[in-house]
Structures are given as structure tokens and as C-alpha cells.
Amino acid sequence: MNAVSPFAALIDQVADWQDTFFLRVVEPSMQALGLASYAEDAYGAVYWLAAGLGVLFVTALVLAPAERWRPAEPLPGDEAGRRERRAAIRTDVVYTLVDRLGFVRVLMFFAIDPVLAWARPLLWAEHAPWHLDQSIASWWPGVTDAPLVGFLAYLLLLDFAGYLVHRAQHRFAWWWALHAVHHSQRHMTVWTDSRNHLLDTLVVDAVFATLAQLVGVPPGQFIALVMLTKLAESLAHANLDLSFGRWMGKVFVSPRFHRVHHAMGGARGGREDHDADNCNYGVLFPMWDFACRTARFDLSPGPTGIADQREAAGGRDYGRGFWAQQVLAIRRMVNAST
Amino acid sequence: MKPPAVSRRRFCLAGAICSLPALATPNVPGQRPIFVLNSLDADVSVIDATSYTELRRVPVGKEPHHLYLAPDERSLLVANALGDSITFIDPRTAQVQRHITGIVDPYQLRFSPDMRWFVTLANRLNHVDLYAWEPGEDARPLKLVRRISTGRTPSHQWIDSRSRTVYASMQDSNELVAIDLDKQEIRWRTPTGKLSADVYLANDEATVLVALTGDRFVEAYDVSSAKPRLMQRIETGEGAHAFRGMGDRRHVLVSNRAANSISVIDTVSRAVVSQLPGPGGPDCMDLRADGRTLLVTSRWIRRLTLIDVPSRRIVGQVRVGKSPHGVFTLDHVAMR
């Protein structure tokens, strides 16, 4: 049953490169650092890296060029505007590299995984109804062992969690102070998905890692789930006037659907202390927005950003570069908490 | 090093750590398939033992790491650690016979030689489970008798030939623990070196070898008295991990996962007498009935590697699934 198709051969070749990298670089380093106990985790992390690179390539080579096809937001007419846009996008590219190449995951591994390791016996208790293998499998034995069925079940569950987390990011003042980094981009493109405060990313990743442990997502599938989600999110943030049509646009989150969520001011966006008027929080599937009455298909996107960035509203500065945005967000969070 | 003798199977004096026990199996080489557990693919590669080609994949449960032969030799038990289940496979035809759920975190498993006990190590839940084996109970042949909290990350075990003591390593608390099967409680525990992994009870039944994956040593303990005593540290290679007896009751192989080598230890002189190559993070091993073909899972390159022991040469590799761990064929030499 060796690979026969060219695609399978390519997959095998990529996997061989990953294995070689792990064997020659990662494992000897871990052994030397006394981290051999984490060898299996590191082996998985190499797959994270490869998957992240794959998403980066697709984003750069497919999604980014596609933005020229039907841009939702036209290029600025003057050179100064274009220069400012390029600078803003460059910052988002930095965020994307940090996110997709796994730097935050490494940070999370050392910060959160020991806690998870401690909590694992609690999460994986013998009678744990939250564990999909125990809950679903009690009336349909072995179903979550079928890779595709398990994958779809976990995808739906994590997507719903993504919806709730996103609502919370808008709901709580301290969290919004961080999440505003993401919303402050006024030139939203495929690179904007990763534009998040590091602490925000850390919190969100911790929530998902814990949830995945809780419901029993296998590590390999977790990587695939996260990467599929990130790819879909990159597309959702693309500067594309694309809705997937009348029906499919209500099944999958489209760039237009998500752009409405990012729209500045008015009735639907940009209120930094409250989310009552916001809409379209869905990550992959809008059905959660339908169920929670937050779906809006009747609105046109308009310019993106946060309402108080407008000159008329005081022209609040959220920072131009990576570090400025990080520092200002912490200040906002501290102010929001006091 | 003496060439390993190809002995006839002996009635379960001991079992493999990563693979299977030596049971009364006739030598019919080349007929029974080779099984490799693909721990991150949740399936088992079935490999033709003559052509060394992968015939098919058998889906099991999540994270199958180790396997063991049922006392009646009619079933190979694949322990799905993350799936909390055990899949029974016919070791001759590779057909799935049944799938038992509710066996919590069976990372590593072993029958006691008297067939009374079936012991699992819960690697992520930090306990050892003692099950009664009741093969007559088709629906539920394993009944949990006692759950014993141990150290952090129970890893590997060996049960003595009198079926009285389980020797189990605790990978993350660096311990060797002895469990009294009669009393079903911990008899003693002793600190070991870094990241204790596989455990091997030598033929004298008084010497326990412990492989240190966080180091380059195998530690030899005297367990003949009430308190264990560290006798010697044997340098093998970085990442010493899994054992496999060579069937001559004297020599044992140990895979060095980070050094990418396999050492042969003389358990009498407690010295390394030979080194073999072990590419790709060698892990579990089985030695074929010809006494010379070593099957070793190359954990980080998704291969089963075939090594000719006398010539110390790699003679082939078979592509399998992701993170291959346990390996077994019914046509193997005795486990010690």
C-alpha cells in the first residue's frame, strides 16, 4: 500500500523532509537540553511548522494574488495613501510569520502545556461526559475513531467554540482592548487574520488547546483542524468582494460576511466597550450566528476599522508597527481594568 | 558476542516490553504477517513477512502504542492509549476480531505468566490497572480489579516468571516501582536516572535493567532482596529506550533512540558486546524466528527497518505510518 499517485508521492516527500529536519536538528537539540520527554510533542510541532508553511504558501501564492481580481476596497488613489497601505500590510505580514511559523505555539508550549499536563488526569477522567469518545461512543461505539467522522465532529465543536470566544473578545472590556489590535486594521487583507495581540493569541490558543484535550482531539487532527481554520480565516479577511452566492454564502463564512463584521462605526462595528450592535462573529460556519441571531446579510461592508479611529471621533492611535500596537494594547487593557 | 540461539517458544516465562511474549508457538517462518502500530495514524500496518511489503492498514483506535499476545495466542491485543480501547487482531490473518472499549489509557500492557493478570500502564493518567483475564467472558474478558496510583507517566513494565511482581518505570518522576500482585499494592519504589523507559528482567530473575531515555545509560538493579540496589550503569547510547531479548537467555538488545543505534548487552557480564545501526529514532523491536532478522520501528522516519544482526547491516526498510511504535510477528525467537 505504498503511495502511488503523484500527489501521495509529493505528500510523502514533504513528510520525509519534515522527518529529516526533526531527526537531524530538533531531536538532538532536545536531547542535549534535557527535553527528551517532549520528543513526541516536538515531532508534532514539526508538523505544525510544515502545516504553517503550507498555509503561508497558499496565502501568498493563491489568496493574495486573488485580491486583485475583485477587491472589496479599492487601492488608494494617491501615492501617500498607497505607501501607508503597504506599511500597514507589511505589519500584518510580520504578525502572520510570527503566528504561522509557530513562535506563539512554542511560547504556549512552555507556558501552558505544563499546566495542561498537570490537569490532564482531570480532563481525561474515566467518566468524562465531555470527552467525545465517551459521550458519542456510548451510543455509537468507535465512531470518533473513524478519522473523517471524528474530524467533522471536532471541527463543528471547535468552530462553535471559536464563535463563543469571538463574542467574548468583543464583550469583555479587557479582552476587547487586546482584540482591538485585530480590528484596527483599516486595510484588511489576507494577512490580517494573524494581526492579534500576543496575549490575545496566547489566551485563545490556551482555550482551544484545553478544549481539544477536554474533548479528546488527537494531536494530528488538532493540527489539521487549526490549519484548515486558519486558511479559511485568511480567506475570510481577504480584500475580496466575494460572498459564495445566495446559499453557500449562508453555509460558509465568506470574505463579504466577515468584512461586515470588521466594518467601521455605524450600527455594527467599532464600539470598543460593547458588542450589542456587532454581528457576523462566525469563523467557518455562519450557522452559529443564525442560531444566536447575530447574522447580518443585509449590510454592505463599507470601510474597515474601529469607529474612534476616525478623525471626527478623535482619531485614536492604535499604533502603526508591531511593537507599538502591542504596547498600546496593554495600556488600553490596564486602563480598562482599573 | 555469541550468535543468538533460535530457540523454540517457551511457555510464557516472560514477555516483550514493546512487543510480545514468548509463548508456545511453532516455528513456521515467513507465513505470519508483521504488525506495526502507527501511533499517530490510529492504524496498524500489516506487512508481508516474505516480500516485506505493506499489505494493508487496519484501523484501530487513537494512539496505538503497544501490543501483546493473548494467552491462547489467538489474538493480538492492540492497546489504543488515547482511544481508551483494545483491538483484538488475529495474529495469523490480521483480521480484526473485536474491539473493547472502557479500558482507560492502556498505554502499555502485559499478561502475567500465570495468565491471571492483565496489567496496563496509564501513561497520561499516572496509574497502573490490574485486570483479571477471563477469556470465557466474550463480551468482557477484562475485569478491572485494582487501580494503583503510581508516579508520573508510567511507561513500561515487566512481570516476573512467578507472576508475583510487576516492575514498572515512571518516566517523568524518574522511578522504578515494584507492585506486589498478591497484595495488589506497591512494594517498593526507587529513584532512577533521567526518563526511565523500558524495563527488562534478566534471566536470573534478580537483575532488572532500566533504559534511560533522557541519558545514554541502562541501569542494572539487583531486586533479589527487599530493597532494590543499583549495581551498575551501562553506557549504551543517547536515548536508551526499548529492550528486546535475543532468545538465548543471555543477550538483550536496547534501542538508543537519539543515538540512532542499537546496543547488544550481555546480561551476565553487564557489558555492551556489540553495536548495530538503528536509523530514524529506533524504538520497539522484534527478532524473527531465524534469529538474525531484527525488526525495529524507526519512529521519526515512518519506517520499519530490517537489520541483519550477525552482519550488523540494514537490509531493508518498509514505509509505514506516522510515528510507528510497537512491532510484532508471531514468528519470533523467545523473549529472553
Name of the CATH architecture of chain B: 7 Propeller
CA-CA gap between termini of chain B: 15 Å
Amount of helix of chain B: under 10%
What's the number of extended β-strand segments of chain B?
Answer: 28
Categorize the overall geometry of chain B. globular
Mean pLDDT of chain B: 90
* Rg from Cα of chain A: 21 Å
Measured by DSSP, the beta-strand proportion of chain A falls in under 5%
Strand content of chain B: over 45%
Domains of chain A (count):
1
N-to-C series of helices and strands of chain A: HHHHHHHHHHHHH
Q: Helix count of chain B?
A: 0
The succession of helices and strands of chain B, N to C, reads: EEEEEEEEEEEEEEEEEEEEEEEEEEEE
Radius of gyration of chain B: 18 Å
The oligomerization state is heterodimer
Number of discrete domains of chain B: 1
Explain the overall architecture.
The complex is a heterodimer of chains A (338) and B (336). Chain A is mainly alpha-helical and 338 residues long. Chain A has helices at 6-32, 39-66, 79-100, 103-123, 132-139, 147-171, 173-183, 198-215, 219-236, 248-251, 255-262, 287-291, 322-337. The radius of gyration of chain A is 21 Å and the shape is globular. By secondary structure, chain B is mainly β. Chain B has one domain (34-329): Methylamine Dehydrogenase, Chain H, CATH 2.130.10.10. Classes of the chains: A mainly alpha (338), B mainly beta (336). Chain A binds chain B through residues 1-3, 12, 15-16, 19-20, 22-23, 27-28, 31, 34, 36-37, 39-40, 43-44, 120-121, 124, 126, 133-134, 137, 141-142, 145-147, 216, 218-220, and chain B through 40-42, 53-57, 59-63, 80, 82-85, 99, 101, 104-105, 124-126, 153, 171-172, 194-195, 213-214, 238-239, 257-258, 260, 280-281, 299-302, 319, 322-323.
